[in-house]
UniProtKB/TrEMBL annotation, chain A:
<keyword id="KW-0677">Repeat</keyword>
<dbReference type="Pfam" id="PF23869">
    <property type="entry name" value="Beta-prop_WDR75_1st"/>
</dbReference>
<dbReference type="InterPro" id="IPR057644">
    <property type="entry name" value="Beta-prop_WDR75_2nd"/>
</dbReference>
<keyword id="KW-0804">Transcription</keyword>
<dbReference type="InterPro" id="IPR036322">
    <property type="entry name" value="WD40_repeat_dom_sf"/>
</dbReference>
<dbReference type="InterPro" id="IPR015943">
    <property type="entry name" value="WD40/YVTN_repeat-like_dom_sf"/>
</dbReference>
<keyword id="KW-0690">Ribosome biogenesis</keyword>
<dbReference type="Pfam" id="PF23769">
    <property type="entry name" value="Beta-prop_WDR75_2nd"/>
</dbReference>
<dbReference type="InterPro" id="IPR053826">
    <property type="entry name" value="WDR75"/>
</dbReference>
Automatic annotation (TrEMBL), chain B:
<dbReference type="InterPro" id="IPR001680">
    <property type="entry name" value="WD40_rpt"/>
</dbReference>
<protein>
    <submittedName>
        <fullName>Cirhin</fullName>
    </submittedName>
</protein>
<dbReference type="InterPro" id="IPR046351">
    <property type="entry name" value="UTP4"/>
</dbReference>
<dbReference type="InterPro" id="IPR036322">
    <property type="entry name" value="WD40_repeat_dom_sf"/>
</dbReference>
<dbReference type="InterPro" id="IPR015943">
    <property type="entry name" value="WD40/YVTN_repeat-like_dom_sf"/>
</dbReference>
<dbReference type="Pfam" id="PF00400">
    <property type="entry name" value="WD40"/>
</dbReference>
Amino acid sequence: MVEEEGVRVVRCGGSELNFRRAVFSADSKYIFCVSGDFVKVYSTATEECVHILQGHRNLVTGIQLNPSNHLQLYSCSFDGTIKLWDYVDGILIKTFIVGHKLHALFAIARAEDSVFVTINKEKPDVFQLVSVKLPKSSSQEIEAKELSFVLDYINQSPKCIAFGHEGEYVAVVRDFYLSVYFFKKKKTSRFTLSSSRNKKRAKNNFTCVACHPKEDCIATGHKDGKIRLWRNFDDDKKYTYTCLHWHHDMVMDLAFSVTGTSLLSGGRESVLVEWRDAAEKNKEFLPRLGATIEHISVSPAGDLFCTSHSDNKIIVIHRNLEASAVIQGLVKDSNIFTGLMIDPRTKALVLNGKPGHLQFYSLQSDKQLYNLDIVQQEYINDYSLIQIELTKAAFGCYGNWLATVEQRQEKKTELEMQMKLWMYNKKTQGFVLNTKVNMPHEDHITALCFCNAEKSENPTLVTTSKDGHFKVWILTDDSDIYKKAVGWTCDFVGSYHKYQATNCCFSEDGSLLAVSFEEIVTIWDSETWELKCTFCQRAGKIRHLCFGRLTCSKYLLGATENGILCCWNLLSCALEWSAKLNVRVMEPDPNSENIAAVSRSSVGSDLFVFKPSEPRPLCIQKNISREEVQWGVFVPRDVPESFTSEAYQWLNRSQFYFLTKSQSLLTFSTKSPEEKLTPTSKQLLAEESLPNTPFYFILGKHRQQQHEKLNAALENELVQLPLTENIPAISELLHTPAHVLPSASFLCSMFVNSLLLSKESKSAEETPNDVDMEEEKESDDSDEENDFTEKVQDTDNTDLGEDIIHQLSKSEEKELRKFRKVDYSWITAL
Amino acid sequence: MGEFTVHRVRFFNYVPSGIRCVAYNNQSNRLAVSRTDGTVEIYNLSANYFQEKFFPGHESRATEALCWAKGQRLFSAGLNGEIIEYDLQALNIKYAMDAFGGPIWSMAASPHGSQLLVGCEDGSVKLFQITPDKIQFERNFDRQKSRILSLSWHPSGTHIAAGSIDYISVFDVKSGSAIHKMLVDRQFMGVSKRKCIIWGVAFLSDGTVISVDSAGKVQFWDSATGTLVKNHLIANADVQSIAVSDQEDSFVVGTAEGTVFHFQLVSVTSNSSEKQWVRTKPFQHHTHDVRAVAHSPTALISGGTDTHLVIRPLMEKVEVKNYDAALRKITFPHRRLISCSKKKQLLLFQFAHHLELWRLGSTVATGKNGDTLPLSKDADHLLHLKTKGPENIICSCISPCGSWIAYSTASRFFLYRLNYEHDNISLQRVSKMPAFLRSALQILFSEDSTKLFVASNQGSLHIIRLLEGSFKHLHTFQPQSGTVESMCLLAVSPDGNWLAASGTSAGVHVYNIKHLKLHCTVPAYNFPVTALAIAPNTNNLVIAHSDQQVFEYSIPGKQYTEWSRTIQKQGFHHLWLQRDTPITHISFHPKKPMHILLHDAYMFCIIDKSLPLPNDKTLLYNPLPPTNESDVIRRRTAHAFKISKIYKPLLFMDLLDERTLVAVERPLDDIIAQLPPPIKKKKFGT
């Protein structure tokens, strides 16, 4: 099916949306933002990503609409090229090769055949603003080497450069001065403010600049929160400025409205301030935007503003200061303590988000699904405050339960800690707080894990702590005369020679619990909580611990701080093998026996994928990242790939995502994940421009009915939780080593049960295989229903897909496309 | 053990009164300032902002308006309903004329200076014709409903704008009828029950009327149509004053929050002729209401309830960035309010309506340099002498022996004899003062307290011999023929032979008292004299001018001394010339003839004529070198100017005896504490 190429590390979504100012299309329908090596086109109405313009080979650093054709977009990148795009169709029109690393791009209407870019020469901190002549040529790739120098020693950030009305001058700020270069007079005026060594200790540093679109007026933002409006700056002596002061901290960005009647400013206060008529007393606020405003941009039509925030979010705001759309990417501005997790229901990546929140991030659509407020306290944005931090989280019981740990430590002895257990509520489709445990342990919790075995009738959670104990929490009946309720209570407290408990792990079937106490691994029976045996290798404290899965479930793996990876055989209770490997991340694949380990060496991080039973690793990927890899996770694939090459087989069922220290989310792929995205987005675009044809009236009605029917059916179906694993219970029974199997009487009922269920699930599982991949793309799979469990969605797809396939064959669809082009609006008028 | 024991006096409870009006005269570059107690002061902006002249206040004459007309003529009007013209030569009031319209709130002189307009409590606007020696009522304009608080002439003189309560009227001068009535919103965007008071209006030549009001707005009106053009809300409190520059390209407004805002007319784009008014810089130099602002060609001038007069130069108008481009803040009068009896260790403090006599404390303790010595006897408030009548005291003096006190108001001269019996003190007024002794500008006793010298406001100098309980008029030096200029400063030589007197502009005259004739006249200098003193023994006259130059003139030799010539040749240190405040007092060390002691408000200096003069490269303000340094270094770094900045603001400093100094300070915080509380403003982060 898929030709195998070399597996390579790709940046997968989650890239910054707030790196540069977003740009509106001329009709305010689309918003463009740079995102890593791509430019993303979002619809301002639906918040949906419509196109991804890809072609740059390095970070895109600037985008601007083509002033002479507002359906085209310029972009520049570190790869030294300027590309011209047709954003409506997502087509690359031209590539101009400049050769220098380009840091920012400006296109103004006056200079028709040239654009302005910032480059840096020689010294790392010396940037120049140059104008690049774009030669007219019909070829796709054109060399544009004709650079003419405009200004030297400027700030790297494009926020510090602004072009005046009709492009008559350019204003540039850096440190304590403002330079204005007049293109006609070819003259530079420079205005200097006193540096911070002055009496009042005012932080006069310039941070950003904006030019009035109609008048000779320059607005500059400063580090102390002041905004200065400069006028008469064509005269070195008579220049004058006004101060506007509301922000208490650095002004992050400024923008004038299209008519220039109001000025927008934003900063760390997360409040968008609109200064009307540039008057200090006449200002409007849009507060509580959630995070520091990094950039502000204004649509050329004047009806929309947008703010980019430090939590990787773009908010589209109406002219009347009402937020209308939020485009939220992966939040990256906090430390990741929880690691990467996969929500079993939505298959979303779960990790720390905004302070005190867990974010659910869809890897498929590269957007945040939702935020779960864990701490549930007002966040006060102050550097000096010690905040409550969400340190641990774990999902259990197929996403029915979520356990979180938050802590705050002001002094060594004053630890505040809370463990919260959240239950998934099917009605509200969200997590609801069930149990709150104050100080579950005396000291920091080092690990927590749920028992995820299928058979376990009672949800079990284990926490380990530095205080030397591990605690087992079980769900008990908490009903009273008023209501039926369940709650979590501590069932067992275990310890081992007062060593700090560092890790815990349940075996796949839930019968065994492994808890590491510094250098020693202890194995406990999960039925009776008896200590079964201990392993000690004296090779340093255990950093990671995990059981093998499936055929390898007799193995226990431990990685120590001294760089030893050990594998113990649970049957012989002996060390099977050990290897010298400085393991930073160790993650088992839930769908196979494979275990991925990322090791850190002096040059970079290396990935090893191995089976515990085999001494030779399946795959070694050297130098996957220059930085330290902090977290990794296997994400099960929706549709298994079929790599035949042995080295890539481990990627068949799951995909491995990892997060580096600089918080870039990377994965392995033979093709870029965006390729998969494009069909759906294209379809969305097509749907958006779909005129109301007679067919629409017929089909649309029908479709709506279908939806209603489906929804009704779904509500009934919601209660059942079919198995997602497609391995038959029998084979599982046979694969499982005898020593871990529970008693035969217990097995019997389970076996029968699994047979009963398997009948139903089989029908649901087989159907998606019947549907061809292409048809699935073509079919109208409704993404809005993302929130339902994967299983349900699958059935949904099939039902819908079948219906449409019946009604619309390929030729019919072509017919339909033709009809689209014909205007049928007269029908509505009838 | 230091060189001097210093009495650090901080019980002079002087509070200057708040500034009510400021009027700038472009022709002579002078500034007239009126205070709430009716005092009018004239500052010469070209002479280093020196307070040249002053007219004492009067309890019933609260000035509400001040203006210059016909070039050099100064008028004021107040709540007693009188228009007053001041005689700037004789330093007295020329005449007062009732306008018969109740209290006068506003006054404006016509652009050509021939007419004077006053706005009265009863709503009338009255036009006066200015004749060469008086003013003459011409006619009333249409009477308005409420008081006229502000007035402004159109530069062509054809129209006027009058600000009242809740509306602005535009009058045609020819017909005297109101052609427009422009109603002002009581509050910016909203309603308020409080009336909107138009504190100030300004009529520009293009027909724009700018108004400032109690709702905190600055509004631009089109006088042709009577419509509002633009609105700037700049303050939460009243905007109380406005002043427009002569070029009409900038104006300044003062608010009750103490902020002064500058507005400028800037072109919208560099290549279009369209211009707009833009609020540019705010200045927060005041803590209280800014009641008055003025706009000189190069500076913004503001004054208010917090008693400071602030002169803020406009950087873009200053040609060279020298010391003139610095901000000036004038708080204290540039004249002496304190006199001292060295023998009895008494200090006489002059207030607006009373005098206080204090005996200095004493100590028996000794200590190191810089120590604060404990007092064995506290300072004693001996006497509180209230004036009779509503007039303010012009000047006062205590004799060196401490047994005579003399003071003068604008119409009467008082002389008292003090008798000390142990701790008791008795006061006896010397009655039957001669008729010619009505008002004095300066009073001085001779060193042996036998003679009294009085500079009267007719320009004459009277010499009076004091006897036990009585007096005898000895002689009167009549002013130089043709001049009526009054003498403001007097100095007598310790041996009693010479008397030096100086007026506001002409040179210093030296009289021989023995022969009762004019001895000589020191060559005239461009800048006014701020302090005079005659050295003992040598009879050298030391003169300090407002440009910070100091001259030494030998009276017997009738020429400048060698030292004075040297220092003129070499020039003073640039930092010395850049000081803000004039030297107000000069004295001499009885045992060290080479020393001259002088002080201004921020420093005290001993000039040692035997030491080399500092050049611009040396440190002027050298801290006293540590004593453990070798003498060589000390000699190398030493220069003639030994300056101490410990005591500030310093109102008076004198040498009581060889080892004792008295310094009278008036900390600004103490003045602020006595002012009414300012408008409370929320400060961020508090």
